[in-house]
Every structure is written in C-alpha cells, then in structure tokens.
Amino acid sequence: MGKRLEITKESFSNEKEIEQLVARACDLMEQIYSDGDYPKLMIKRTWSEHNPIITGEMARPDAYRWYLSREIRKLVTKGAEVKIFPSRPKVALNDPALFDNADEDEWDITQKKLFLFTPERIDISLDRLEHYTGTRPEDFQRYILFTNYDMHVEVFNSLYPDCVKPSRSVQMPAYHHKLPNNKGFTLINMGVGPSNAKTISDHVAVLRPDAMVMVGHCGGLRNHQEIGDFVLATGFMRADRVLDDVLPLNIPITPNHLLNVFLKEVLDKYERSYRLGTVFTTANRNWEFMKRQTVQDIHISRSLAVDMESATVATNGYRYRVPFATLLCVSDKPLHGKPKLTGDAQSFYENSKELHLKIVMEALEMSKEHNPEGLPNSSIRAINEPLMGGPE
User: Fold this and answer.
1) Rounded to 5 degrees, what angle do the CA atoms 328, 330, 336 make?
2) What are the beta bridge partners of residue 281?
3) Could you tell me the CA-to-CA distances from 36 to 33, 60, 83, 100, 125 in Å, in that order?
4) Half-sphere exposure (Cβ direction) of 292: Cα atoms closer than 13 Å
5) Per-residue pLDDT averaged across 108-116, rounded?
6) 9 or 232, greater pLDDT
7) Structural domains of the chain ordered from first start
8) What does the pLDDT look like over 256-305, one tens digit per residue?
9) Using N-to-C axis directions, what is the helix angle for 119-133 and 194-204, rounded to 10°?
10) Largest CA distance in the chain
C-alpha cells in the first residue's frame, strides 16, 4: 500500500465502492501511524463558501476506526474530496515537547478544525485511558456509562458475562460489552468525586463516543422525594469548581434533549417515580458540615438533588462536544433526617442497582435505533469548529 490516497467523486460509482475506499482510507491511516508518522487528512468541501478546505492530524486511528469510517463515509457521500498522507514524525510520549503540542490553551477558536484534539493529546490520553481502566482503547464502545459503585459493575457483569474486563487492578476499571462497529456499552467505575470525573472524561472524549451518561446516586433535597426515586437532570449547579478556569460559570450546561426524552420514556414505562430539574454538584463530601451556606446555594439554584460528579461529566461533555445525560437515584435525604447510614444504604443499593442500569441501557438502545449515525450534537458545537462533517 502506498503512503497517499485521494478520494474524489470519480473514485466510486456505488455504495460498495464507497465502503471499500473508506476501508482503504482507514487502513492507510493505521499504516502511516504504525510506520512512525501522524496521518494527515485534507478535506475539500466544495459546498462550503467560507471554509472549503479543512485539514487535521491524528494519532491511534485504530482506536476509533468506527468514528473515522462513519465521518469519512458521510463526507465522501456528500461529494467531499479526501486526501490522506503522512504529516510528520510521531512525538514520543517521553519527549518534553509532547505537552507543548497537547496544550489546550493553544487552541485557535477562530480556526475550523477537522479534529478537536492534536495527535499528541490523543496519544497521551489513550495511553492514560489504558493505564486508568486496565483495558485497551480499541475495546471502548460508543456508549459510555459512568458509575462509582461496584454494585453497578456486578450488574453489568451479570448481564454481559463475556464482557471485556480489566487485565489488572486499576484505579478506574472499565468493562466493555462489545458489539460490531463499537455499538455496545462501556461501563467505567470512576470512583468518587469531581477530580476523578474530570480525569476520566478528559481522556474518554478523545474516542468521540456517541453518548456519555452518569449513572449515580444522589441526596434528595425536596420534601416530596423518597429513597429510590429517580432524578433526571435538566441542568447543573457547578459547585464542583474543577473546571471553572477553563469554562466560565455563566455558560449554561444542559443535557442532550433526545437522551433525556428516551430516559423519560423508559422511566414512564417502568412507572418509576422521578423528578426533572437541577443537580447540585459539590466537591465537598461533607457539605452538611457547612450546612447554612450550602443550603442557601441549593435554594437559590432550585436544585432537586446533590452529588459529586454529574456537573463535572456534563461540563466536559459540553467542552468536548459529546452528548451527555444524567440519571441519578435518591439514596438519602440529608436535610430531612435521612442521612446515608450503612445499614439503610446497603438495603437501598440492593433494591435499586439492577433497574437503574437497565433504564439507562434501554434508553441508549432507543437512541441507537432512532439515531444510528449518532445523536445530533449541533447544540454543543461552536459555529466555527465542526468535527469532520457538518453543513458549514
């Protein structure tokens, strides 16, 4: 195979030939990377008046081949011209220059991008993803579920006993129910707290998943909530603070509307009690020890529930243009004399764990059925930086 490939409208005459060309394109990108260079794409879009040519480099194309295949196919079908060729030698992961080229502060927000991340950032993130989760980036599926409880892992393993599991003891173990074209589920037990939530979602975003969903527990804050009720987030109070420096607090963060529609439909199907509203995410697990100030903030935000991860995952979903949603289950009511106590908590966990996970996965199955090419994400794309395709 040569080191260059050009696809034009004259290169194919039917769908089968398009598929063959896309496969060749992906094979070439993988070969270029394996041979020691970053692959570069140049896309010419004749329909774009202001940005007809977009270019981009990448690393580890085998890890998200499904995504590259889908996006290149869409572009070629629409009439774009695609060129693939080696760009420059790979930067070693132990090269001090690596982080100079992975620095998000260097993003030019006025320049349209083919890829959101530099190849250096992709390389280091996928290496760290394997380090944290104990599984290969290639095993990750399009639909990512985040939890911080072993019980959800137990349910996932019982539903999918043949899932790919971590190869060793790790900090944030991942489990993958693999399906063709990466259309299965990945469950990550990321641990507790917004720092962990930021760390893992920073790296997962490089794989361009179709959806990220937080499957967690929360403290109920309203009188008319019971232990075991669900909370479907429609907004977030960002009291976690870990992303304030990179995304101002005055930027509204809202979940993907279609994901919430599917989650609500499944909740109604099971006739579960739930409420929609704001989730208050804090970095302080013992916020009750500063009750007066925290409760004032909760009242101002009209929050329904408090947790430690949801807003962080949602904010990174927004930053990195990944559709996201949050479904929490009320495990305690700290303001109503029902704190999370060991005996009560264990009983609640046992009664809630299976249905909680199933509701989310059923909603994602609906999403796959209605949006086989991925959820629309124009609402979280900036007008000046499309990823791969788009009408601009």
Assistant:
1) 145
2) 238, 307
3) 5, 11, 19, 20, 18
4) 0
5) 71
6) 232
7) 5-121 (3.30.1730), 134-371 (3.40.50.1580)
8) 999 999 999 999 999 999 999 999 999 887 777 777 787 787 888 888 99
9) 130
10) 71
